[in-house]
Write a structure and sequence with these properties.
The structure is a homodimer of 316-residue chains. Chain A is of the alpha+beta class and 316 residues long. Helix content of chain A is 34%, strand content 24%. Chain A folds into two domains: 133 residues, PurM-like, N-terminal domain (60s Ribosomal Protein L30, Chain: A), CATH 3.30.1330.10; 157 residues, PurM-like C-terminal domain (Phosphoribosyl-aminoimidazole Synthetase, Chain A, domain 2, Alpha-Beta Complex), CATH 3.90.650. Chain A starts with a helix and ends in a 16-residue tail after the last strand. Chains A and B meet through α1, β1, β2, α2 and β3 of A and α1, β1, β2, α2 and β3 of B. Chains A, B: Belongs to the thiamine-monophosphate kinase family.
Chain lengths: 316, 316
């Protein structure tokens, strides 16, 4: 009775029927023609790399798998439209946990009105979820490569929370704002859409500001100066991790944006009206190096960022 | 030096640059508006479930990961356009094997003129590749649900080869036509496109004819009669596995098609002209049960199909 098809039905039952020409159940989904350009991204969460079953509820895992993909769409200024989900399940994975996982994913999908149109189940030694998500562009995509010298750098929300949450989980803590940020990242979809009216470049902060800013600078052919004293951090992060936490902590899923000076006033007004918190943390420079300035005005080199293959130990 | 980014570069270098507004390297790919409907599918191949590194070369693995997805597009009559590839790699996976894997995938992509537009790398305990592929429809999609009583059932190519290949690999054999079919399934893209002009229903044979025919019948609300003596098999399969091999052997990635009687002559002519081998193996019936008829005219019940969670042991 533990067949592939009962898993599929169990999973699908958490989601509303997709309003597309053909949803899950056939060899492919069929989607309507798209008037505008489409953004597509694929991202996976893997057991013991991006989550552990000891520290994440099934709902958390389902949420996070979709959130990291919606964050990529947000970063381009796209409106999420559909996604497919490939699930790899250990043979002993309990069916009721799969239902909870689907419900966590479905709640976030509902919030962003994005439709599950297809998927795949396979067995595997470890649980993983690989999602491909697509969004519609109404304006030109916000890429990493549009930044120019003199453009201001903004980040949304606060930084370092997800890393602090990870540390607290490892210490045995189970509740609190930082842990919630680690378990349930919130993709900045509305901000991405807003930013696409003003910003010259953008990306999401999945690997930590230090590393992600490097990607933006490289793609834009510029350098950057970041004022450490401007980095938005909660007092808990400031106390526990200091600047390094904000710079190196991955998985915040906030947005990093470059805004031309002539757009800054309108961008900040629009953010304030929309209730979106953004903070100017520096600017792009012609000199192609990244400079961090501490509150005493001293230059410090950018620390290495987050890289699954290099520096990140699994949660354990 | 074994960072995520060197893996990405190594992988991408096997593929030509995608002719889309924005290819790999940003948060999302950007695709042009689509005039027609789009088919989307996602499918994964997992180490020790769909392949073993002992029996599959890296090129085989890359080929198979893409082939199983293109086969789903073929089944709907779609022309492959783009795909994204999420790679989960054990930490000790050699970089040169990743290059070979990418080359195997790229060769098949080139053959079908389908563009790699994005991807993701993560570490994991076992190697897996999860691809999402999209194709363009020029006619209405060939679904599983369009079959009607009286429509003829066709299968392409020969059946049971991939299962025979799997058995031979387990016995220690390394070469031969059946092993090649297991390692390098050929998605029937041209046939799917052709069939969409004539057929009422279609799907690909990934789980074995017995099980897949059940899905087509269920979706179409019909039953079926299959003549075992008509099943196309090589003499090697006939000898080694008998009818059961053709019925139960998964992973052939041939097409199963239902064709209305008034289209049969034109369909067969078009297949002959195109050099596509198809064989009429039975017909759909009003009575909603599946009947197999052996060469002596005796009825036999359909055997259980291939199900990762139920019957399929890993290759070992």
């Amino acid at each position: 009775m533990r067949g592939e098809f009962s898993f599929i039905e169990r999973f699908l039952s958490a989601f509303p029927r997709a309003r597309v020409p053909l949803g899950p159940g056939d060899d492919c989904a069929v989607l309507p023609p798209s008037r505008g350009q489409t953004c597509v991204t694929t991202d996976a969460v893997v057991e013991d790399v991006h989550f552990t079953r000891a520290h994440f509820s099934p709902e958390d895992i389902g949420h996070k798998a979709l959130a990291v993909n919606l964050s990529d769409l947000a970063a381009m200024g796209a409106t999420p439209r559909w996604f497919v989900c490939a699930v790899a399940l250990p043979r002993d994975f309990p069916g009721r946990e799969l239902s909870r996982l689907a419900r966590g994913m479905a709640a976030l999908a509902r919030e962003h009105r994005v439709a599950l149109v297809g998927g795949n189940f396979t067995s595997a030694r470890e649980l993983s979820l690989t999602i491909t998500a697509a969004g519609e562009l109404k304006r030109p995509a916000l890429t990493r490569g549009g930044g120019r010298p003199g453009h201001l750098l903004y980040v949304s929300g606060t930084l370092g929370e997800a890393r602090l949450g990870l540390n607290l989980l490892r210490e045995g803590r189970r509740r609190g704002a930082a842990i919630q940020r680690q378990r349930r990242p919130q993709p900045r979809v509305a901000l991405g859409l807003l930013a696409s009216r003003f910003a010259s470049a953008g990306m999401d902060l999945s690997d930590g500001l230090a590393q992600d800013l490097g990607h933006l600078c490289e793609a834009s052919g510029v350098g950057a100066e970041v004022e450490l004293s401007h980095l938005p951090m909660s007092s808990a992060v400031r106390q526990a991790l200091g600047w390094e936490g904000a710079l190196e902590g991955g998985e915040d899923y906030e947005l990093l944006l470059a805004v031309p000076p002539e757009q800054v006033a309108a961008f900040e007004r629009a953010c304030a009206r929309a209730g979106e918190r953004v903070t100017a943390v520096g600017l792009l420079t012609r000199a192609r190096r990244r400079v961090l300035r501490d509150p005493q005005g001293r230059l410090i080199p950018p620390p290495p960022g987050f890289d699954h293959f290099r520096v990140r130990p699994p949660v354990d």
